[in-house]
TrEMBL record, chain A:
It comes from Chitinophaga japonensis. This is Cu-processing system permease protein. The lineage of its organism: Bacteria, Pseudomonadati, Bacteroidota, Chitinophagia, Chitinophagales. It comes from the Bacteria. GO terms for cellular component: plasma membrane. The chain crosses the membrane at residues 12-33, 45-67, 88-114, 120-144, 151-176, 196-218, 225-245. Keywords: Membrane, Transmembrane, Transmembrane helix. One of its GO terms (molecular function) is ABC-type transporter activity.
TrEMBL record, chain B:
NCBIfam families: NosD_copper_fam, para_beta_helix. Residues 49-188, 195-355 form the Carbohydrate-binding/sugar hydrolysis domain. Keywords: Repeat, Ubl conjugation pathway. It comes from Chitinophaga japonensis. This is Nitrous oxidase accessory protein.
Length: 255, 412
């Protein structure tokens, strides 16, 4: 398995896309943080970049990569290696290189220029999002037979989580605004990894706002250590469950 | 003036023997009592308390005497009694440690009570663990300076205020440090008084509380970590200058709460990290000028019942929401403020933006209606909504705007 991971990593390095991705993230991070004297504003812009671009780039890149290396995968499977380790090795290779890109591009400038808990949380949520969306890409890869359909599914997934879900949620909140819906909203949030990451970060930045009135429940729950652990474990579930599902599907798949 | 020469003679004698007029009566905790010494004293005398613990209570100061402590002698109410009751004009209490009044539901237990007296001075005392620290009732021209008040209040019902003034006038309250009471300083029907350079920290309810108190001023005070910083209610012509409102953080916490007040000025204050920096309801003809609002949840929550206010030359930076309101009507004027969220342009380079700034964001309006929507704050969707609203305002109150927003921050 280690050898396969090594080959995947080398292949990605040759690819250079990861390097360009790192560079773009680094340029964005440094410029955003230096642009404004107010570090919390820079942090917010980086949060927006993380929530908007990281998921879509990760899922697209990973899906395309998995489909492109399908021949390599088939070649490996002709050898006496079990399917699970091939798939997980490919995932690890992609996820590790994308995470490294994020850590180097956003993490290092951020922690150097604005060190603090908020920055750390932002980097952690960015890394988790990278892992989650690579794992969703893997699921898309094993579920879809051809590349076009796969890329389409990836785009739809990313858009759904970054935009459509929130739209639906705000619709829901609007129509049931008269009822005590806080708990339900809290439950709904766990269905979207991007929202979970955002809320985790929000508690670091805008505690004041969340603390007012009905925000009290959110604050009480998510602001406590237990809440943060809950959010992080939900995010981990978002990574692990698609991964296990894809292994399951891949094991039974007729190649 | 029957015998002018005799008065002159007395005066000369007095100069020769200062003791004739102002004797110093020394009290030691082992021998003698404070009350006894006061009884013995004549107006103008000094009662000097030596270091030690005095377990006396209900000490009536009914003469013009100076009660002076040496190295903070302790007067202890043992959790049951009131301590000093001053009824004489021009009495002075200085340098004592007055403690443990206890709690009663019948009487407002006070460590030092000034009752219908004038020109009383309470200075440099330590007041520890009292229900009420200094209680002024129907008094005038009193001075309360440089005292330290400390209590461990837990709830509003079983606690009292640090400095409590009722039906008084011309008070000067300066340089006190108040912590752990219900309200740090409480004013009810108090007029023409001055509160300055105090530090009011971690009180259960308000740092400073005005009720029905007109023509007062408070300047250069610091209010931090209280339930709410300052509440000004039902008062007229209150001046608030150069204060710091800090870390009033939590559910329903405010830096400054204004309710039914008129003709006040709020100038040169600093509001940092409050959940709501200024909350106003029924405030009329206020002038809010040259203040700094930074890092607050809401810089201002202004109910539609406020009118004729002028908000100018303020700096708004790093607040989650600049202004929130509950209606569409707006009878106040915003002009020439600096807003860090302003993204207009200044083509003629005169330092003011050419397009108006709308300080109420869409999301402030939405969460005002449905607080649960706060969970979606800062998501991509809400950013889109903000942009759409900027192009075509439909949800935000379009009358609430700053027509001449500053491009550069004011130097305050």
């Amino acid at each position: 398995m280690k050898t396969i991971i090594k080959y995947v990593l080398l292949d990605l390095l040759k690819n250079k896309i990861i390097l360009v991705y790192t560079l773009i993230l680094a340029v964005l991070a440094v410029s955003v943080l230096n642009l404004d004297g107010n570090p919390s504003k820079g942090l917010l812009s980086l949060l927006n970049i993380t929530l908007l671009f990281v998921p879509i780039i990760t899922i697209l890149f990973a899906t395309i990569y998995f489909f492109n290396s399908i021949e390599f995968t088939e070649l490996l499977l002709s050898q006496p290696i079990n399917r699970k380790s091939v798939l997980l090795a490919e995932y690890t290779g992609v996820a590790v290189s994308l995470s490294a890109a994020y850590a180097a591009g956003i993490g290092i400038p951020l922690l150097l220029l604005v060190s603090g808990t908020a920055s750390l949380i932002l980097v952690i949520s960015g890394l988790l999002l990278t892992l989650i969306f690579s794992s969703l890409a893997l699921l898309i890869f094993v579920l879809c037979r051809d590349k076009t359909r796969g890329i389409g599914a990836a785009i739809i997934t990313a858009l759904f989580f970054s935009l459509l879900f929130d739209g639906l949620l705000i619709g829901l909140i609007y129509s049931f605004g008269e009822y005590p819906i806080e708990k339900m909203v809290l439950g709904a949030i766990t269905l979207n990894p991007i929202d979970l990451a955002r809320v985790l970060m929000l508690l670091q930045l805008d505690v004041a706002v969340l603390m007012g009135y009905s925000g009290a429940l959110f604050k009480k729950f998510l602001g406590s250590a237990a809440g943060s652990i809950f959010a992080v474990s939900c995010l981990l579930c978002w990574m692990i469950v698609p991964l296990l599902l894809s292994v399951r599907v891949f094991n039974r798949k007729n190649l | 003036m029957k015998h002018p020469y005799r008065i002159l003679l007395w005066a000369i004698l007095a100069l020769l023997h200062g003791r004739t007029f102002a004797t110093v009566i020394k009290v030691h905790p082992a021998a003698g009592s404070i009350q006894g010494a006061i009884r013995q004293a004549r107006p103008g005398d000094t009662v000097l308390l030596s270091k030690g613990i005095y377990k006396e209570h209900d000490i009536y100061v009914d003469k013009r005497v100076v009660i002076l402590g040496e190295q903070y002698p302790v007067v202890d109410g043992q959790g049951r009694h009131q301590l000093f009751i001053i009824t004489a004009d021009s009495a002075v209490i200085q340098g004592l440690q007055v403690q443990n009044t206890g709690i009663s539901s019948l009487v407002d237990m006070a460590a030092i009570r000034v009752q219908e007296a004038g020109y009383v001075k309470v200075a440099h005392n330590r007041l520890l663990n009292n229900t009420y620290g200094i209680y002024l009732q129907k008094s005038h021209h009193c001075t309360v300076v440089n005292n330290q008040l400390q209590a461990q209040a837990v709830d509003e019902q079983n606690s009292g205020n640090g400095i409590h003034a009722w039906k008084s006038g011309h008070l000067r309250i300066q340089g006190n440090h108040i912590t752990g009471h219900r309200d740090g300083i409480y004013f009810e029907f108090v007029t023409q008084s001055d509160i300055s350079d105090n530090i009011s920290v971690s009180n259960v309810r308000y740092g400073l509380h005005f009720m029905f108190s007109n023509d007062d001023a408070y300047t250069r005070n610091t209010f931090s970590g209280n339930g709410a910083g300052v509440a000004v209610m039902f008062s007229k012509r209150v001046t608030m200058h150069g204060n710091v409102f800090k870390d009033n953080w939590g559910d329903a916490a405010y830096g400054l709460l204004l309710k039914e007040i008129s003709d006040g000025t709020i100038a040169g204050n600093l509001f940092v990290k409050n959940t709501v920096a200024i909350y106003m309801e029924g405030a009329a003809r206020l002038e809010v000028k040259r203040n700094t609002f930074t890092g607050n949840g809401w810089a201002m929550r202004m109910q539609a019942s406020c009118s004729n206010g002028l908000f100018t030359e303020n700096n708004f930076t790093g607040n989650s929401f600049d202004v929130a309101t509950n209606g569409t009507m707006m009878l106040n004027t915003f002009r020439g403020n600096y807003w860090d969220k302003y993204d207009g342009y200044d083509l003629d380079r005169d330092g003011t933006g050419d397009v108006p700034y709308y300080p109420v964001s869409v999301y402030a309006v939405i969460t005002e209606k449905i607080p649960a929507a706060m969970i979606l704050y800062r998501s991509f969707l809400t950013n889109i909504m903000d942009q759409v609203e900027k192009v075509m305002p439909s949800i935000i109150p379009d009358q609430l705007k700053d027509d001449a927003p500053r491009i550069k921050k004011w130097k305050l």
